[in-house]
Amino acid sequence: MVPAMAILDAADAADATMQDASTGRSEKQLRHLCTLPLEIITTILECLLPQKPDLGETRPVSYEKLDEGELWYDHTRSRRGLWSMCRVSRQLSAIAQPLLYRVVALLSEESMFLFFRTLTDRPQCGPWTRYLSVHLTLTRESVIRETRRVVGRLLRTFHPASTPPILMDPIRVALEIMEVSLPALSTYDGDFDDVPQVVVSFILMFLTRLDTLLLQVPVCDDNPEYDALFVKLGAARDHFRQFGNTPEHAALTPFQRIHTLLLQGDPELLARFDTDDCDCEVPELFGAQPRRYHAMFAALPALRTLEVSSDDGAWNNILEEEHAFLSGGTIEPYLGGFREIYLHDSVTCPIHLHQILRNAPHLQTLYMTPRIDPRFEQRNHHHHHPPTEPDPMAFDVALTHHAHNLRELDVAWYDCYGCYNLIGPEGRLASLASNTTLEKLCVQLAVLFGVSSMTSGGGGPALIDLLPPNLVELTLEDWWWSSLNVYDAMRDWRHSEKLAYYRENSEYRQRAIAMMAHFAARFRARMGRLRKVLLLCKIPWTWEMAGSNGEVDAEFHFREVKEVFKEQGVEFSVEAA
């Protein structure tokens, strides 16, 4: 494979030769390039496809300050390389131009409106886009003001195409309305707050082959949710439905291929909340609110995967609550179309995972990485004797009644002390042992053993009796609620403190090694499909030591356990986070 950086350098050279018409070298190079098979040229140029932004990625503050290797540095240079190839020849342009629009990241109000103008002028470019990310919170006041300025400056540069009429007619009408309203489009007027949402909804109408959409969304009530965007998506869906299901109209119908929705909690505002000198009032509960996006879920019929960064932890079905209050009726689960849900940096508590499973009956994958939730700390002050009887809405109850299609489960919490009953009996996921659908599981030891944990010195049940029988891959996370007391502090530990912690946990290591040895020797009788086991140690200094007598890593303690697993065809490894 040709290195992408080499292709970028070649693209820069091609761009330079295009500007220097006095030499015949560029024509010679072009003749040689055109003799290559089309498939090879395409494969080479595909190396220039920009990297897709990850969830939580903030837009660049200044392009001049970007360093080589950063996402946006590589992203912009890749696009520049494709743009240079578009200018070399018609043949290369026909290949490079669709790739130029394959991955689109809207990083400013101007880029958003210019992309809208491109699609309006040349609708044939729309089907080239597969991935779109919008790194603007559309209801933030600063975004609304800047969008108004951009509209006032660029609207008159639009030259909309006339075809296809089913798509262009409503957009031409909208542009005319914008132009008529332009004199009243004050940058501080509140009558046009939905302009950014309208622009994004029109962009989505052009992208008929889009499969992945990333939206940056509000994380507090100061920025309203995207109600105008939802209304526009619903109106567009209804507009195309009235023309029937002819092949011609089916090819132009938007939103039919979007299978993955990424909701990115506004990372800029979240970063401000995390600073000690934040000049704004930090709400007690903040984060993205996916429960309010049910209208968008309904408008995108092919949705199968939902990823959310920094949600606020609440997943109740607000439509169901409204209907129950007004008419006492029932309503369909608002997450009914999803097969995979991934929550990153989440404060979703166990009873709200119950809500997810209840509202996503076809769910096959549930993943959650936690962030520390201050609400647990508040509960701890009020629960000197925490209840251990499971709550009716406990997560374990949901696994029993609403997880019939679940194949992969990976959830964790930093702290559930004082709230064991929200997980299950005595803080355990007791139903895991009888779950026959799970094939991949990542689970904390604290959730497996609950209140009767190994850290108390008690015997407790055997690990093999706590796990699903049909697992193929198992990850055990070495984490207990009491670990939170040292988790933040350990980053500043001196060597002596790490060594002291290692020595203090000698008895714990012995019990943990014995537990894994017992499991390795007996798992096959109950878990015939198991092929991979990982022990993930969240506090490295429980298992690692460096001293004058040499170093000890986590793998050292499990050498014999690893051999026993290997003899039975199971890959076993230990990782220290």
Automatic annotation (TrEMBL):
It comes from the Eukaryota. This is F-box domain-containing protein.
